[in-house]
Amino acid sequence: MTNSQRLADLGIELPAVVPPLAAYVPAKRFGELVFTSGQLPVRDGTLLATGKVGADIAPTEAAGLARQCALNALAAVDALVGIDAVVSVVKVVGFVASAPGFNGQPGVINGASELLGEIFGDAGSHARSAVGVSELPLDAPVEVELTVAVG
Fold this sequence. Notes:
Largest sheet: 5 strands, mixed
Radius of gyration: 14 Å
Protein name: LysR family transcriptional regulator
Helix content: 25-40%
Domain Endoribonuclease L-PSP/chorismate mutase-like: 6-140
Pfam families: YjgF_endoribonc
CATH architecture: 2-Layer Sandwich
Strand content: 25-35%
CATH superfamily: RutC-like
Order of helices and strands: HEEEEHEHEE
InterPro entries: Endoribo_LPSP/chorism_mut-like (IPR013813), RutC-like_sf (IPR035959)
Number of domains: 1
């Protein structure tokens, strides 16, 4: 089964690529790897939430936002090389705008990781970093970037 067939079976539609906010590209290929720029939880041109996780945003809501970030990253990959070219997810880096004392960043970024497992199965397993930060662009609560191997 191809990745696009798996997406269709799961009822998941990749969104349009989110335009860059500054001087960068959404995704860049180098050899057999594609690196995405950090993606915010944007849908249909709208940032879905703002604020700090653990104060303004509940961790479960933030996990859903991380899922949207991952979908946006996959859209950037799809636009560059086609989603069916992905043979493995290599690395996920997630940033969580965290209220003081919040230390549940891994659970938030699970929203992205679990989506990748649903779509790619074993090929979706990856190395990962989940980092708490004080601020993200546009006051977004979460940002996710991917590195995928393509064939």
